[in-house]
């Protein structure tokens, strides 16, 4: 549903009509008023000023600002008696918005609103039926048909753009808008405005919003409410946007259907994956927490689900805000999820991930179901890549399923290897368990290691580092976190052994590939923007 500027436009229309009516009545007793300021000028300027006041009253959000600016540009052209073609009006409004807010280019709403307006202009038949007296049912039917046509055109045209911006397209958006726009325009907004003079009407408006919310939630609950597709490269995405516009323009169908050829490559784009026998490790930037995506040629595993951002029951988490958008952007369906232990910075996003990826096999060190526990000795092989659980031992679980060790010491330790290169992921394992593992399997090596406990001084013990001899260490920690991770003593251990390391605040999301073991790719370097803080 997209009606962000609709209430401002409706208010501006009502305000313009009201100012014009008042001005003409005033002219009966003060005729010189019309000579000084003609009614069109008074109504136009007054309508824009009142719309600006209303937008300020409603919070002065970015969509409201954009709507007010566009109204001011259009009214200014009308009052100057200039008949510009619609592309010129559209470009002028866009230029004014960008002159006052250049960062609007980075907002999805900017592109959605301006592209939608351009599509409506471009597909306008340009001819109006002669005025005739018809019954109100017929007028209502014509209005509904016109609304359905406009919404259908905008829905088709914006589908590739929404895929480009959000990696998804709402399949129930047309039905939602057809229900929401008349409801908000004809009921909610008038009741909210009249409530200024009759406050009890705000209760009625609140009831109307509740009914709409319940209806939309019901639509959103439909299993096929949205179509998720991997994010396509920019060239393919821009071609798809052009194809969506071509499909709805008033051109011969033979030409319009050519738009499908432009949409097709982006719609069925598949991101590249590792070759058979290779694997990829992507350490997400989730702040003070852990979430790592491991991918082989045809399988994927998520190690930890990121932190929960707050203590409130409705607090957001990295699973919903970081992990799931990444999985959708890559077109991933997880085969397995390993949650190292129950601490919130590792398991905070588990509920969101599990709800979105119900097909995945789950392993953790705190699940009461024995079949869903990580236990040393568990092994499986995907596409020529071996996955082995090294810790905890079965004896570390009590009869009630609870760990006999601390939560950190019970962390699931996973090793991934293709026989040549390997990755070692240890959750928040403490030094005592690190030493035990190193002495039990002294032959194990690690090309890349996820720093245990985010680089805490209680982990990354010298014994473990000497045994694994990692070529790279990736530290997942928060910017200026209160724990001072990674600890200076741990960083010194890395330096003494000549081990290069990267951490989330300076690297962002870190990617390591077994096919290119000598490099860790930092998203903050490859995708740097001028407003990015260096993270020091």
3D structure, described in words:
- This protein has about 525 residues and is of the alpha/beta class.
- The chain folds into three domains: about 5-125 and about 135-235, no CATH class; about 240-265, no CATH class; about 280-525, Ribonuclease Z/Hydroxyacylglutathione hydrolase-like (Metallo-beta-lactamase, Chain A).
- Helices cover about 50% and strands about 10% of the residues.
- It contains 20 helices and 16 strands.
- The chain has a seven-stranded mixed β-sheet with strand order 7-6-5-4-3-15-16. A seven-stranded mixed β-sheet has the order 8-9-10-11-12-13-14.
- α1 (about 5-30) packs across α4 (about 60-80) and α13 (about 320-330) runs parallel beside α15.
- The longest helix is centred in the N-terminal third of the chain and has 31 residues, at about 135-165.
- It starts with 5 loop residues before the first helix and ends in a 10-residue tail after the last helix.
- The model has no long low-confidence stretch (mean pLDDT about 90).
Brief sketch in words of this structure:
Keywords: Cell membrane, Membrane, Transmembrane, Transmembrane helix. The chain has helices spanning 6-29, 32-36, 39-57, 62-79, 86-100, 108-122, 136-166, 173-194, 200-220, 234-248, 253-256, 258-267, 318-330, 344-347, 350-356, 431-440, 462-468, 488-496, 504-507, 523-526; strands spanning 168-170, 226-228, 280-283, 292-295, 300-303, 336-339, 361-364, 379-382, 385-391, 413-417, 422-425, 448-450, 472-475, 501-503, 510-513, 516-522.
């Amino acid at each position: 549903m997209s009606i962000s500027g609709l209430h401002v436009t409706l208010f501006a229309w009502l305000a313009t009509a009201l100012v014009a009516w008042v001005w003409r009545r005033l002219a009966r007793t003060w005729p010189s008023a019309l000579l000084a300021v003609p009614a069109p000028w008074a109504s136009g300027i007054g309508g824009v000023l009142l719309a600006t006041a209303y937008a300020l009253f409603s919070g002065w959000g970015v969509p409201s600002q954009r709507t007010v600016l566009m109204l001011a540009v259009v009214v200014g052209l009308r009052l100057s008696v200039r008949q510009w073609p619609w592309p010129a009006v559209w470009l002028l409004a866009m230029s004014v918005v960008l002159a006052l807010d250049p960062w609007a280019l980075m907002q999805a709403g900017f592109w959605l609103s301006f592209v939608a307006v351009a599509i409506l202009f471009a597909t306008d038949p340009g001819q109006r039926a002669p005025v005739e007296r018809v019954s109100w049912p017929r007028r209502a039917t014509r209005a509904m048909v016109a609304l359905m046509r406009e919404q259908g055109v905008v829905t088709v045209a914006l589908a590739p753009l929404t895929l480009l911006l959000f990696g998804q397209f709402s399949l129930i958006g047309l039905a939602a808008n057809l229900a929401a726009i008349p409801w908000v325009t004809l009921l909610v907004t008038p009741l909210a405005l009249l409530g200024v003079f009759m406050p009890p009407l705000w209760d009625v408006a609140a009831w109307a919003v509740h009914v709409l919310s319940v209806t939309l939630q019901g639509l959103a609950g439909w299993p096929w409410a949205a179509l998720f597709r991997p994010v396509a490269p920019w060239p393919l995405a821009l071609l798809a946007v052009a194809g969506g516009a071509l499909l709805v323009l008033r051109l011969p169908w033979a030409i319009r259907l050519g738009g499908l050829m432009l949409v097709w490559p982006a719609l069925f784009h598949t991101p590249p994956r590792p070759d058979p026998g290779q694997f990829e490790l992507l350490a997400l930037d989730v702040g003070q927490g852990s979430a790592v995506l491991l991918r082989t040629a045809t399988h994927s595993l998520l190690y930890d689900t990121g932190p929960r951002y707050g203590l409130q029951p409705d607090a957001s988490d990295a699973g919903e805000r970081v992990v799931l958008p990444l999985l959708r952007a890559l077109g991933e369906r997880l085969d397995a999820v390993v949650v190292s232990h129950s601490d919130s910075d590792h398991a905070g996003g588990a509920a969101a991930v599990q709800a979105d990826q119900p097909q995945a096999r789950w392993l953790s060190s705190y699940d009461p179901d024995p079949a869903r526990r990580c236990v040393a000795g568990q092994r499986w092989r995907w596409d020529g890549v071996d996955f082995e659980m090294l810790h905890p031992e079965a004896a570390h679980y009590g009869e009630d399923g609870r760990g006999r060790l601390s939560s950190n010491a019970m962390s699931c330790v996973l090793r991934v290897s293709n026989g040549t290169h390997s990755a070692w992921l240890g959750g928040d394992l403490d030094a005592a368990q690190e030493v035990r593992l190193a002495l039990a399997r002294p032959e194990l090596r690690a090309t890349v290691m996820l720093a245990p406990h985010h680089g805490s001084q209680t982990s990354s013990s010298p014994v473990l580092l000497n045994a694994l001899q990692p070529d790279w260490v990736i530290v997942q920690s928060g910017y200026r976190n209160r724990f001072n991770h990674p600890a200076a003593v741990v960083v010194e251990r890395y330096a003494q052994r000549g081990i290069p390391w990267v951490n989330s605040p300076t690297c962002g999301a870190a990617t390591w590939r077994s096919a290119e073991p000598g490099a860790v790719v930092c998203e903050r370097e490859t995708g740097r923007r001028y407003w990015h803080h260096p993270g020091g």
